[in-house]
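Troubleshooting log. The previous structure file for this entry was overwritten by mistake, so regenerating from the original sequence record. Sequence copied from the archived sheet and checked twice against the printout by T.R.
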Amino acid sequence: MDGQDWTDARVLAHSGDASMKTGLKIYIFAITKDMKNAQAFSSLDGDMLIIPQQGALDIQTELGNLLVRQNEIAVIPRGIRHRVTLPTGQARGYICELFQGHFRLPELGPIGTCSLANVRDFQVPVAAFDGTLQDGRACGNNREWQVVSRLDGHLFSCTQNHTPFDVAAWNGTYYPYKYDLARFCVLGSALYDHPDPSLFTVLTAPSYREPGTGVVDFAIIPPRWNVMENTYWLPYYHRNTMTEVSGPIIYNQDECCVWNKGLEFQPYAATVASAMACHGAPEDAHKKAEEQTTAPKKVSTEGFTVFLLETECPLRVADWAIQQFETNGVATATVHGTKSNL
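Regenerated output below.
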């Protein structure tokens, strides 16, 4: 929608309570303009996992700058002020706001140390002081700034007479960061059967309630090799203890790519599968999997990769989203209401 900036993100689904530090919210954003000059934003509710679907975000934070492109993700910790501009034009995507704990790498156990997302591939900004040197002294770019904050899902604003981006140096482990999903080291079955999607987890926020569950897992299904012979390549029809939201990320940044032209790709196409609801491949994909030869080959999704947000929390889709989908005739349900395409 025209005229929207970073402060106009809308809630798509949610669970828990930000004031009680439980659960999460999933937002969508569609930005067509930079944030206002001398304006900053922060979430006081939780850490923000930013998943651009298309376009790039130039994020100026208190601790330094991040340029987040297609097929990259970023995490902005709770309370870190930042300003978002558009270096390549409009952008859209998803935000997973985590109220409970923090995002971290999953425990790898027998997988070992060099698999999935590696620590060395995450990028952390260096301090970027917003100001100038005058007579050997650092002087901030001081003027009246508006700071917009989200608290318990509501937006508040205040003004201050100096820039929030006046950090000349910092240390510690509470910082924003970004990660290139192309660096993800995919693992998979080398003999038979499709692995559980948890094998594709990039970041997780464990709940510490019991093994195999979490407040949220962020996983991707990227281009990869399948080397299973004489077996069924697709996941069996199944039920999960986790609620699953899946959607596409465009990884081809070429402007000529058909996915970047907005002609054949509907923004925000996503699937929600509730906990303990049956879901799996549709009939045509099942038939193709039965008939295909299973010699090793590269499996590609032609310009986009699929992400998953899996949570032990029951997700409630926002009323406006349900009304919008029903009005436009987009929402559909499969047998027994087990799956909704948003």
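The two ends are 18 Å apart (CA to CA). Archived copy saved in two places this time.
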